[in-house]
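Q: Structure tokens for this one, please.
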Amino acid sequence: MNYQSKTAIACVLLGFAMASQAADQNTDASQGDSNTLRISHAADRDTRADLSKYFTGKALVNPLFSAEDDSHATAASVTFEPGARTNWHTHPVGQQLVVTDGIGWVQMKGQPKQTIKAGDVVWIPAGVKHWHGATANHSMTHIAVQERRDGDNVSWDGPVTDAQYNAE
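A: Here is the predicted structure, written as tokens:
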């Protein structure tokens, strides 16, 4: 995929995230009317920091929007400190990662890890076991967008070992 295509996809995803920020908490309009504009303010969405069940190292998850009404998409901005990463996991409908800052790695099970940087957009197919996080020496932030199927958007597995993380 060329740079222009990646940039276009990133812009569409970021525009979708910005336009669709309807979280479960403290919206400015009635939740009952699907034709009502809803705004979810960042200050009203709590950062999740205790992620040791699903991550190695320190990461912060800032929810952006959750699946509501006819939408099945959810999204969060995730910041990984150097060395932090997710556990192995899968998504029933796949996952898009829009890297917004720093340098990280992503790896699908059985394949070499790949470097990702600010501006990159990653597609992980449905049901493919993978992990993502910061490199050992740099932090990384991405927006993760995934859809729910039958109420689930992720299935977690075990931690990525240091040997797996450090493998070339």
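A few notes: Residues 3-25+49-166 form a domain with the Jelly Rolls fold (CATH 2.60.120.10). DSSP finds two helices and eleven strands in the chain.
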